[in-house]
Amino acid sequence: QLPPVGSAESPAMVPANFKRLGLHVSRAVLTDTVRQSRTSGILRNATWLRRAMLMDPLPSPRLLLDGYDDLHVTDGNDVADVVGECYRADGPDETIIVTRSNRRALQFNLGIRSAILDYEEELVKGERLLIAKNNYTWSATIKELDFIANGDVAIVSSIHSIEEKHGFRFANVTLTLPDRDVDVPCRIFLDTLTDESASIDRAELQRLAEARMADPEANAPDASWETRLRRLRKDEYFNALQVKYAYAVTCHKAQGAQWKNVVIDLGGIAPESQGLEFYRWLYTATSRATSRLFYLNPGEMAE
Question: 3-class SS at 160?
Fold first, then answer.
């Protein structure tokens, strides 16, 4: 499992953390892979990467490509054709680009929407979105839904209206969560779709919170601070869903999911950045694919 951003290890994978809570800890080693076949080049590379992470010194990363039909190398000139062919063969729901940063994910997302999907509007019916932050507000009235999770994919089934308030732009929509088989009427932030940050900045959220607490539409003029704060916790604007386009994602957002077709963006990764953290990233990205894996601009790693 990839550690949280900025951490060297995953706390959820450290037995000592649970033992300190007085819990009994059991360990198991997963030895059988069912996501890919045993003759898969995807599995071969994932296995090599996992074993290489245990070596000292850490070897230079390399890709094992020869003799495998499920592995391919592509570059920036052909990536649109690759993604388009994958869409035609298996659909956008079975195709993903995995990249290193939110900025590059945004660039890929905007390119796919314009060059492949021919979307001109900022948001369209059928749009694939990625939830960027856990949300408990919009699931409160849906019996089978505890919360909407960071990393969930949502499909825009209806767009009801778009509005601007307190300097933020919102859309009132109905989202379908395909993995939960449920429809959710909700409000989403439009600004997060084209923002390079992972989610809305804390200072911006604080500004919105103060605006909502002072808004006479949300609170009576004589309402106490405690009443305003209590209403803020359920406020539909402050708790609007934070979403991104879902055609390209960072590896942290891809964890736990799988697709038939995965394109891994290896462009612009300096040799000095190809340490253990990079190995973990590449292993996780590689193991997301079940049928076809495309390495985009792998450089010397493919030689």
Answer: strand
Sheet (strand 248-250) strand order: 71-74, 289-296, 259-265, 95-99, 248-250
pLDDT tens-digit series, residues 136-147: 999 998 988 999
Q: Which two tokens stand for residue 106?
A: 């945004």
Q: pTM for this structure?
A: 0.88
**What is the Cα 121 distance to its own chain's centre?**
22
Q: Is the peptide bond before 57 cis (omega within 30 degrees of 0)?
A: yes
Domains along the chain with CATH numbers:
34-117+247-302 (3.40.50.300), 128-245 (no CATH)
Tokens in use for 101? 């940063």
Nearest-5° Cα angle at 107, 239 to 134: 20
- Pairing relationship of beta strands 95-99 and 259-265 according to DSSP bridges: parallel
Report helix, strand or coil for 17.
helix
Mean pLDDT on 285-291: 95
Return phi, psi of residue 165, to 5°. Answer: -150, 130
Give the side-chain half-sphere CA count within 13 A for 70: 21
Alpha-carbon Rg for the chain in angstroms = 22
- Residue owning tokens 């699931």: 139
